[in-house]
Every structure is written in C-alpha cells, then in structure tokens.
Design goal:
The chain is mainly alpha-helical. It is about 85% helix and about 0% strand. It contains nine helices and no strands. Helix 2 runs antiparallel to helix 5, helix 3 crosses helix 4 and helix 4 runs antiparallel to helix 8.
Length: about 180
C-alpha cells in the first residue's frame, strides 16, 4: 500500500549505519520479547491471557459479570502457547529483512514480495496454533456478545460510535492533506 511505498522510499534514503541501527533495535526488541515471554510459567501464561482478554472485553462492553469472567477464564485456559513459535517466526523474518535491507538492485520489490508472502511462509506449527487460538477467541466473543446486558450494549454502541468518529476525522485529515 501507500504506507509501504513511503517506507521503502525512506529506506532508500537511509545510510548503511542507519539501516544497521534500525536492525539492531529490532533485534534488541526480539531479545526483550524472549525474556518477557519465554520465561513465563504455564500459570503466568494463562493468567496473562486472562488479564489481556478481560481488559479487551471491558474496553468494549464495560464491566463483565461473574459468569462472563468465568467464560474468559475457561477460554484463556484453552489457548495454546504461541510465544516460542511466534518468536522463532519473528527471528526468521528479521534475518530475511537484514538481507533485503542490504539494498541490492531490486530490493524494494523483494521486500514487497516477502511481506505479501508472510502468511504463506508461516510454519505449520505457527498456523495450527494461530488457528486454534483464533477459533477459541471467536467462540468466546460470540458467547459474550450474545449474552451482553442492556448496559453492555449501550457501552458497546458508544464505543463503536467513538471509533467511527475517529475514523471519519482521520479520513477528513487525509483528504485535506
């Protein structure tokens, strides 16, 4: 898209030192993610899932009932750990990106091709875990939305109105630019 084209144009203007600093920042983030995620116990993994899922639902429909909270807890225990396989996939991508950013002739087209192929090149393990977890999240979302209270429906409507207004403002800014 247009954003990628702008990034590729920027990449063409950067010095080798700037590219190296960019890649080093991405690898430093990788090390931080590995430390944060891989050192978690199973109990911490499930508790993090519970907390994150609960926060997300409460952002959109407000306070959950005790029954809804239990559904979130049960669902978070069904999720498969994706941290290790995700970090492996990310490390492979960073390695590939480093080669692409050597900026040999045709590098911009190769970056575009690599980005569009990312979904197709994910490992079977990653795809299996991702699909399992997305199914669990979709089922939980349907269960909670189908059982929402009037108060939660009003909260959701207000939240969606706010998002629509934000998007309309961004679109108007884009047209004005």
């Amino acid at each position: 898209g247009e954003g990628l084209a702008q990034l590729l144009d920027l990449g063409a203007c950067l010095s080798d030192e700037q590219i190296a600093a960019f890649l080093e920042a991405l690898w430093e983030q990788q090390r931080e993610f590995e430390e944060e995620y891989l050192e978690r116990s199973e109990a911490e993994f499930y508790e993090d899932n519970y907390d994150n899922t609960l926060d997300t639902f409460q952002d959109y429909i407000g306070k959950l009932s005790d029954v809804q909270r239990q559904w979130v807890r049960d669902s978070s225990r069904q999720l498969l750990r994706s941290d290790q396989v995700w970090l492996q996939e990310r490390a492979l991508w960073l390695t590939q990106l480093a080669v692409l950013l050597e900026r040999k002739p045709g590098w911009q087209q190769r970056v575009r091709a690599a980005i569009s192929a990312r979904d197709d090149t994910a490992s079977p393990d990653y795809q299996r875990i991702y699909e399992h977890n997305m199914d669990a999240i979709y089922q939980l979302t349907a269960q909670i939305l189908n059982a929402r209270s009037e108060r939660q429906s009003r909260y959701l409507k207000d939240k969606l109105t706010d998002i629509r207004q934000d998007l309309e403002a961004l679109i108007a800014q884009g047209k004005a630019a």
